[in-house]
């Protein structure tokens, strides 16, 4: 049951509000929310129940406990849509008035609501009516320039009339074309005739010395395009699956080809480094030895830059230990370090010799040459394995009868090198050959690397 305080609160009779008696003016209507802000802050606030989204809760309650808005507003203050505040300004009058659309040629009269100040103005949406300018030719121009044995003048006039009516929508033009009175034409034939006449008229009516943008339509290309599209659409599921399979195989071959090219570049770098190091050693042996002053002895590089390992140069000021020059850089992997230690132990070389100037230089050069030899042997083993795999595949295919026998030089009898696949067989998917070569497995690489390193060590011992 409502109490007296509730009634006074509803009628706004109590408290400070009772002092403001009198007539309601414009400020009272506009600033009504500011007067109630003090009261609303004193009221209790209810928390949103757990599990209820805030969007749903905003439809039920707000900060001022108002109902959801009934009219949309263009204000963006706050998260919730604010109710439209109706002021005391004079509204602009609207009027139910007739109008005509300039885009229509039948003079139809329509009615709509519009502001009274805009009475008599043009229909605003008439500016969106864009029409295509279809050229018009005379009888003399047609007889002199546009005559064609395959087209009559009546048929040409009918085509241009439809083009003008349907705004060059040639699919609609082909549908509305009078095939009973005239010869049956395709969409490409209609386009070719229309654009041919447009180009002729543009050349005739153009002023001399002006650059023209003449529209050109290739009917043959359009026919081939539609034919190819129809073939693509009429493919069977087996053909689609076969095409996807071939695309995947092509991507695999391209990936392996890139890997092989990368390995070839690395191998070429190793060979170049080995040749450069050998030539530099020979040049140093042939050059006469000159005694240099003791001040410049510390400026000599420890190893040549073209070696397998690039040792850092200690040119900074301060005291350094000579043994620091024998430390391997971080660019050398753990696998190479272990192989290098094994080769040095088999050769009987101390892993940490006395770090004199000459021993440091010779020891670094020896380790650099051993790492370069190790990399060359590893690359040679990889190439030999790939060659052996390709030879086995070729022999298997030769036995199956899909390609000819391998000659002594590893080429076809007709002189063309490479591998081939017989076309037109049902098991073509199973006989696809990767001419690039399959990648090596980690275990096979480890076995070949260990075998090559041991054989290289034995050869060095013999020397």
Give a brief outline of the structure:
With 463 residues, this protein is mostly helical.
Structure description:
By secondary structure, the protein is mainly α. It is 48% helix and 3% strand. The protein contains 14 helices and 2 strands. A two-stranded antiparallel sheet has the order 1-2. A hairpin with an 8-residue loop joins β1 (94-100) and β2 (109-115). It is flat. Mean pLDDT is 75; it is low at 16-22, 291-307 and 408-442.
Number of distinct helices: 14
On the 0 to 100 scale, the average pLDDT is 75
CA distance, first residue to last residue: 117 Å
Proportion of residues in β-strands: under 5%
Report the order of strands and helices: HHHHHEEHHHHHHHHH
Which regions have little confidence, pLDDT < 50, spanning 5+ residues? 16-22, 291-307, 408-442
Instruction: Please tally the β strands and state the result.
Output: 2
Overall 3D geometry?
flat
Biggest sheet record:
2 strands, antiparallel
Index terms:
two-stranded antiparallel ribbon; 463 residues
Q: How are the SSEs placed, and which strands pair?
A:
Layout: H1 4-11, H2 26-30, H3 32-35, H4 37-42, H5 54-60, E1 94-100, E2 109-115, H6 139-146, H7 153-165, H8 170-176, H9 187-205, H10 219-233, H11 237-286, H12 334-347, H13 357-400, H14 442-462
Antiparallel strand pairs: 1-2
Helix pairs in contact: 9-10, 11-13, 12-13, 12-14, 13-14
